Amino acid sequence: MPSRLNPYISFDGDARQAMEFYRSVFGGNLTLNTFGEFGEEKAGDAADKIMHSMLETDSGFTLMAADTPPGMEYKPGNNIAVSVSGENADELRGYWDKLSGNGTVSVPLERQMWGDVFGMCTDSFGITWLVNISDKPA
């Protein structure tokens, strides 16, 4: 298996809902493992919270996430953005519509100075998404 780089997002108790939402956007196979399944004795009320999740899509995307472990402080911030890019305009516009639907658009999905169609939004879980639709090479 080759090395890969993918986003890993921490949530404050709603990782399951977020990852199920992302599966509804991108499709694919979602694996969810809870703290309780891994025998985390200190989990207590967090036994049903997500210790690790991974979404792998037919398009080759991989997104990982977890709820903040018991005893650790959740520190939200704007230090993560997830970029989705490619040439399939219909597919990417579909992702955009779902991600931005209940979120906030900061850059509308439109042609930019570099020639591609680009937009930026923050979804209903507070995650920033960058969608870039490239023109097909001549």
UniProtKB/TrEMBL annotation:
What CDD domains does its record include? PhnB_like (cd06588)
Q: Residue ranges of the Glyoxalase/fosfomycin resistance/dioxygenase domain?
A: 5-129
InterPro entries listed in its UniProt record: Glyas_Bleomycin-R_OHBP_Dase, Glyas_Fos-R_dOase_dom, PhnB-like
Q: Which domain of life is it from?
A: Bacteria
Among SUPFAM superfamilies, the record links this protein to:
Glyoxalase/Bleomycin resistance protein/Dihydroxybiphenyl dioxygenase
Q: Which PANTHER family match?
A: PROTEIN YJDN, PROTEIN YJDN-RELATED
Task: Please report the name of this protein according to its UniProt entry.
Answer: Glyoxalase/fosfomycin resistance/dioxygenase domain-containing protein
Q: Which organism is it from?
A: Streptomyces agglomeratus
